[in-house]
From TrEMBL:
Gene Ontology molecular function: any one: hydrolase activity
Pfam families: Thermopsin
Protein's recorded name: Thermopsin
Phylogenetic lineage: Archaea, Thermoproteota, Thermoprotei, Sulfolobales, Sulfolobaceae
Top-level EC class: hydrolase
EC number: 3.4.23.42
Transmembrane residue ranges: 433-453
Keywords: Hydrolase, Membrane, Transmembrane, Transmembrane helix
Native species: Saccharolobus islandicus (strain Y.N.15.51 / Yellowstone #2)
């Protein structure tokens, strides 16, 4: 008997802990609704096989809260006699379903308990997360992304991966982009390849999420590039940072709508085809006073750690880079790992006129093991920049980014592309053609510096 009681208590503690974990993550919220007596409000939820629905409903007075599948909801809608999957009368309900079949489900709040108008607040989360919530068509960031979600015989499964370093590989055989009306501070032929990761920092009292970007910025018309990092605060809907909270070689800049970001960029390099580069984003140090992130690249001269950035968070208990297929960040974005082509910056989406590139990803786990993500999707979601006229072709275990529009599906484990790592091309070409290119590049660089293009905002 004592063992049974202990088992029940442990099970209850596990369930309470699980619900607290879900509720502490960012749920997707609907706008509050005023509901008159004897009226109901319904919320459709599009579920893929294997997903669970977690919802939290708060009403100003007790109401009837129900969850229906599509068939039963139609019966309820016609004569109010549909049999729900879930039923409760309360003013504050939290519930998580078991894994469901594919279909549309309806969360219903019926104001039939009192004769007063009530205010309804609903928030929910599908787990594993729906990777198509933000992007399902072009323009979109195109490349390879690990969302922590994989499909097994049509059933979605989730995974959680804590790691210390992300490594992004690219070999470009051809690239050309054009935007006739680019945002201010970007170039008409600009494009980017972004290695985007999420940093989780846990303190004694709360958790923080920071979005780390390590980016190759291309000016495709004259074949030059530079490397830039950005850091954003994903803990809430407003990215608040200051020069006191983040310190490195760069600085904190204002974007828009109350959002701030950190940025730093390198010098410029020329490139020729085939062009290879490796990007590194590493959690370098954890202390009680904050965490240090190292941003690096290898363009043929060995790894260059071009910026070491400390995020000052006090009473740090733990920190790690995170891929999480069950939860969203505080601003309701994915805990994913992205290596994606997109516009150059400032929320730009650009049209690619030509593209032939191969991408690869690796991560270094907390125990030092190096692995390649084994369930990748062909598009990203977290970045504001997008690409048009691009697709990913998975062939012979390689992820090729080409011109096209056949995207938004899962692929397998992408092999590391063949690399051509030579020292970067300098402007020392003495031929007439080389001198002309050098002069044009120099003039262009001066213009870029004047315009401040090296502080691109990527959200």
């Amino acid at each position: 008997m004592n063992l049974k009681i202990l088992y029940v208590l442990l099970l209850m503690l596990f369930l309470i802990s699980f619900l607290k974990t879900i509720m502490s993550s960012s749920l997707i919220s609907y706008q509050p609704v005023a509901l008159p007596p004897n009226y109901y409000e319904y919320y459709p939820l599009n579920v893929t096989s294997g997903q669970c629905i977690f919802f939290h409903v708060i009403t100003t007075l007790p109401s009837t809260i129900m969850l229906f599948n599509q068939e039963q909801f139609l019966i309820f809608k016609n004569d109010s006699k549909g049999i729900p999957i879930y039923f409760n009368v309360s003013d504050d309900v939290s519930f998580k379903t078991s894994p469901l079949s594919t279909g549309i489900y309806y969360l219903v709040v019926l104001n039939n308990v009192s004769n007063n108008t009530i205010t309804v607040n609903v928030e929910y989360l599908l787990t594993p997360v729906s990777v198509y919530y933000y992007k399902s068509s072009l323009p979109a960031p195109i490349g390879i992304t690990d969302y922590g979600v994989y499909n097994v015989s049509g059933i979605l499964k989730g995974s959680i991966m804590k790691y210390l370093e992300a490594i992004g590989y690219v070999t470009v055989y051809n690239i050309s982009a054009f935007n006739a009306t680019p945002p201010m501070g970007t170039n008409r032929s600009g494009a980017s390849l972004q290695l985007n990761v999420v940093l989780q920092v846990n303190t004694n009292n709360e958790s923080y999420q920071f979005w780390l970007q390590n980016v190759i910025d291309f000016i495709t018309s004259i074949k030059i590039y530079y490397i830039e990092d950005n850091i954003w605060n994903f803990t809430s809907n407003i990215s608040y940072l200051t020069n006191a909270s983040v310190s490195g070689k760069g600085a904190v800049y204002y974007y828009k709508d109350g959002n701030f970001y950190y940025a730093y960029s390198t010098t410029y390099y020329n490139y020729t085809f085939p062009f290879s580069l490796i990007l590194f984003t590493k959690l370098d140090n954890i202390s009680r006073q904050g965490v240090t992130i190292s941003f690096g690249y290898n363009n043929g001269t060995g790894i260059q750690w071009y910026d070491n950035v400390t995020i000052h968070v006090f009473s740090v208990r733990s920190a790690y880079l995170l891929i999480d297929g069950y939860n969203l960040t505080g601003n309701q974005f994915y805990y994913d790992l992205e290596l994606v082509f997109a516009g150059q910056g400032n929320g730009e989406y650009t049209y690619f006129k030509s593209m032939n590139s191969s991408l690869g990803l690796q991560i270094i786990l907390q125990n030092g093991t190096i692995i390649s993500p084994n369930s990748l999707y062909t598009f990203g979601s977290d970045t504001e920049e997008s690409a048009d006229n691009l697709m990913v072709l998975f062939q012979n275990n390689y992820a090729w980014v080409l011109i096209g529009n056949n995207n938004f599906h899962a692929i397998g484990n992408a092999s590391i592309p063949k690399l051509y790592l030579y020292p970067p091309v300098t402007n020392n070409n003495t031929s007439g053609y080389g001198s002309l290119i050098s002069l044009l590049a120099l003039i262009f660089l001066i213009v870029l510096i004047v315009l401040g293009i090296r502080r691109l905002r990527r959200r």
